[in-house]
Amino acid sequence: ESVFSGSDCALFTTFSSACGDSSDKVDYTALGASDAVGIGAVAPFKGYVFEIEDGLDAEESCDGADLKNLGIPGAKAGDIENASLPVAKELNPDLVTLWTGPNDLVGGDTVEKFEESLEKIVKELTEETQATLFIANIPDLTQLPRFIDDPDRDVTAERIQEFNAAISRQAAKYGAVVVDLFSTLPFEEAL
Asked: Using one digit for the tens of pLDDT, what is the confidence trace for 74-97?
């Protein structure tokens, strides 16, 4: 179930800075799970990746976006590392968005396993491509009706904080930008 709505994409307005001083198209690569491909959005083409693309297309300082969506429904960080990362490096985009972690958390994976894959993704994207990398953290999934109605021992505030700390550590270590969904995402708009 998507945690984004169209208005939530205001969080991503900073992506327009990817245009920089160039009037060329922004090569934009999206990495993530079902949300990246629009599953769970009101309409798939209204998912956050497509909203970002539309925003870049409307940006007067550049010639729009050339989107390569490498989202994989159900993907965990290890899936992104193994399947999407090699393609993203080959594409050498200007802008990468990465949202991973919710499937790892819900699936009961350890934060250590998650962070190991996340570090490889972030390190290689920041060191082996020209991309500016934006990583979204995990919103408070405990507030979703799914977990309110049927609590899950793997979906706890403590585990969300641990996963978000891992995201913050890797972003800081490699100079990526964290999009803070935990503090800013109003679930009542997304439900």
From this structure: 999 999 999 999 999 999 999 999
